[in-house]
Amino acid sequence: xxxxxxxxxxxxxxxxxxxxxxxxxxxxxxxxxxxxxxxxxxxxxxxxxxxxxxxxxxxxxxxxxxxxxxxxxxxxxxxxxxxxxxxxxxxxxxxxxxxxxxxxxxxxxxxxxxxxxxxxxxxxxxxxxxxxxxxxxxxxxxxxxxxxxxx
Length: 151
What we know:
The protein is mainly β. It folds into two domains: about 10-75 and about 130-145, Chitinase A, domain 3 (Roll), CATH 3.10.50.40; about 80-125, Thrombin, subunit H (Beta Barrel), CATH 2.40.10.330. Helices cover about 5% and strands about 40% of the residues. It contains one helix and nine strands; from the N terminus they run E-E-E-H-E-E-E-E-E-E. The chain has one helix at about 50-55, and strands at about 10-20, 25-30, 35-40, 60-65, 80-85, 100-105, 110-120, 120-125, 135-145. Strands 1, 2, 3, 4 and 9 form a five-stranded antiparallel β-sheet that branches. Strands 5-8-7-6 form a four-stranded antiparallel β-sheet, with no helix packed on it. A hairpin with a 3-residue loop joins strand 7 and strand 8. The chain starts with 11 loop residues before the first strand and ends with a strand.
């Protein structure tokens, strides 16, 4: 098979290693040291703000990008903070600030929410993404780029 050096663009399958860190250097996620992941551009595996940055990269390229919150996990939204009656939680659950519960969303999917305050009557739960409002450092090493097979 003829392997051409195809740059990352619409309609390509990309094999890469990546890491996601916060500005203070703490690593959130990384697959360096493991097998590269592969996905097709536009399939939803990567947030659009991350995907756009790797366009034009080719096999062997490694780059570090700084991704603003608007292009990463968004800004926290006050509407995503909900006040739930204490009775919705099992009485034997020991509530703690920072505890994450999984709630069913309207479409039946799971939505994680973090307890940010509580008292005897009410529990305040933040459904914002834990990385919302954070600038993300995105380190990418592209191993291979090939035309995506259309099925």
